[in-house]
Amino acid sequence: MAEPDPQDSLDAATRATRSLQGLSTELTARVPQLLEAMRSVGAGLELHSTLDRICETAAELAHARYAAIGVVDELGEGLSDFVTYGVPREVAEAIGRRPDGHRGLLGALIHDPAPVRLADLTTDPRYAGFPSGHPRMRTFLGVPIRVQGDVFGNLYLAEKQDGAEFSDYDLHMVRVLATEAGIAIGNARLYEAARQREHWIDGSVAVTTALLSGGDADEALSVVAEQARRLADSAAGIVLLPAEEGGLEIVAVSSDDPASSLGVIIPPRSAVVAKLLAGEAVFIDDSATDRRMITRLAERFGPSMMLPLHSGGRVLGALATPRARGARPFTETERTLATQFASQAALALMMAEAQRDRERLAVYEDRDRIARDLHDLVIQRLFATGMMLESAQRRSVVPEVRTGVGRAADELDVTIQEIRTAIFALQQEPAEAPSGLRTRVLREINMAAVPLGFKPSHRFLGPVDSLVGELTGKNLVAALREALSNAFRHAGASLIDVVVDATVTLPDGRGAVRLSVADDGVGIPEGGRRSGLRNLARRAESLGGASRIEPGIGEDGGGTTVVWEAPL
Length: 568
Hints:
Elements: H1 6-20, H2 25-29, H3 31-41, H4 47-62, E1 64-72, E2 79-85, H5 89-95, H6 104-111, E3 116-118, E4 140-147, E5 150-160, H7 168-212, H8 217-232, E6 237-242, E7 248-254, E8 265-266, H9 271-277, E9 282-284, E10 301-311, E11 314-324, H10 332-395, H11 399-426, H12 437-452, E12 457-461, H13 464-467, H14 470-491, E13 496-505, E14 511-519, H15 531-542, E15 546-551, E16 560-567
Parallel strand pairs: 12-13
Antiparallel strand pairs: 1-2, 1-5, 3-4, 4-5, 6-7, 6-11, 7-8, 9-10, 10-11, 13-14, 14-16, 15-16
Helix pairs in contact: 1-7, 3-4, 3-7, 4-7, 7-8, 7-10, 7-12, 8-10, 10-11, 12-14, 14-15
Pfam families: GAF_2, HATPase_c, HisKA_3
GO molecular function: phosphorelay sensor kinase activity; protein dimerization activity
Domain GAF: 46-195, 216-359
């Protein structure tokens, strides 16, 4: 991340001083308040909190009841974000959708970014009315915010206290503040971009680590879907592969309801499929209304990125990261980082495939060697031994000996036939057996260590590989992935302990496996999102088990322990 340029702050201070020269003592008396406001605006690096702080500071400085910042979208045609101050949450929810800047006074200020001061905005010809439930507003002050010479957005103030109008003094003060706000926003954007890049790089490392640590192809694709969903902050992560009958089939999903999406095929007539298979990325503003989206799944989603998984001139499939309807669109930075992630994931998939091919080839070569040794050495020696026994049988004059030797020769013939059958089996392609549960659990833990910054501790109780069935094992691994993801995204944990216990007995006497994921984080807040916990419970209940939450391993029982159990 680039360091903030001290010259920017110096230039801002110089411009501020010049703008204040010759003004009244009233304004001069407010200079300390202005300087304190400028200091407050530049106090943080997180972008959205910086915008919140600018709104609050500007409202206090100009004695306004309401303040807002409209962030201009990348095309300069509307608003991509709208941050407010002074409007209660329940009022904002009653108003509904925030302004998009495509019409009215806010839209006019996007295309003509100049200071505006109005005694009554409702009389301005650019005024287009307020939506139902909107607070009453009359006096208005708008100032553009520029970041490195480009318009970032506009700072709006409304309803000066005591019914007064905004003065020239207010305009001068807010313009100075907007200059400092531009510098603060520029620094916050640099920090945000660096942090985003770091997260996407960590996600790529986690995917590569998981894919190259072994395991079957289904689990590898699930890892890609889960990481893509987390990094893109999307409602789902979806991996699609070419279908036998043409088009693309959804083969891996990370979402709150994956079962409804798995197996859906996007037909080859889709324009999106054609572009993806040609190696081109597709970006959708609203999946529910875009005519190119022809499946029933599109109705659930809004903005979406659909990226080809291609490497070395080969398209393996596609990766989709749709957001919920009404969610913010993907920025240009997010699109670039996601495209790079898709390329890295495709490369990792190819490397994992090549690694599995090498391992499979090594097994084939070993099996061929064993088959040759059995044929060239063991069978030949057994055959020679059989010839010796037949010769001894012919020379023997004792009937019992002749009978015993003949029986031994017959047994050798049977043994030779069995060995030849084994040689034939060794020369056939072996069926791929899935990795053991212990290996899959360790792989999830190693993958989670990258974004967490530390490796969770783990314990296994009982012979988990031999006791836990394949279906239960797959659901346990998915539950572990969800629990570790929650610990990373929401808990802020510094310690995590994973226990897989295959010695558990349910109240009805059935044997069971229990997964416990304990952390020392902040716990589950009241009213917090619980879709992940409901998903864990559904997985357990579908197998005849259950899921629950217990105290964590922090001091005085702080944190959370997710307990998931299902019959063996």
